[in-house]
Design goal:
- This is Enoyl-CoA hydratase-related protein.
- By secondary structure, the chain is α/β, with parallel strands linked by helices.
- The chain is 30% helix and 21% strand.
- The longest helix has 16 residues, at 33-48.
């Protein structure tokens, strides 16, 4: 069943499985403030629902998992608001004990990498591409998932090498 009160987040439950789909394929599933709020709410619901045991996060379409921040919306509104739970409502959510799986089905850039790092497991399609384009637009990868979690998971030097390679 899909929850109709979300506009940018498909919330689909099948038994104990929740599938959250970033539903903005026209902008490569990039996030703006309303999308952040919807995903934060969706993760809140997942956390407290005893019937849900695992969640998969993916992107609508085949082109992109998530291209990060919607820079066009940001340049138009100047609004870079995110919930207290971080980018996509997940990167600052350290207390979530239920498993999250990222199903990367295309471009995974910037904030998409932050979402991936905040998940417990990532699975990528053969055509998936990864990158951190923030330096090219004068930003840093500070969404809370990648730079904070990656060094703890793979060690500081390996994390630094990976982040620098992805930033080229």
């Amino acid at each position: 069943m899909n929850d109709p009160h979300y506009r940018y987040c498909r919330y689909e439950v099948e038994g104990p499985l929740l599938t959250l789909t970033i539903d903005r394929p026209e902008v490569l599933n990039a996030f703006h403030p309303d999308a952040h709020r919807e995903f934060s709410d969706a993760f809140d619901r997942y956390a407290v629902d005893p019937g849900l045991r695992v969640a998969i996060v993916t992107g609508a379409g085949e082109k992109a998992f998530c291209a990060g921040t919607d820079l066009k919306a940001l340049s138009t509104t100047g609004d870079h608001t995110k919930p207290r739970t971080g980018f996509a409502g997940i990167t600052h959510r350290f207390e979530l004990w239920k498993p999250l799986i990222a199903a990367v089905n295309g471009l995974c850039l910037g904030g998409g990498m932050e979402i991936l790092a905040a998940c417990d497991l990532g699975v990528a399609a053969a055509h998936a591409e990864f990158g951190l384009p923030e330096p090219r637009v004068g930003l840093a990868a500070l969404g809370g998932g990648l730079l904070q979690r990656l060094p703890r998971q793979i060690g500081m030097k390996d994390a630094m090498a990976l982040v620098l390679a992805l930033s080229q």
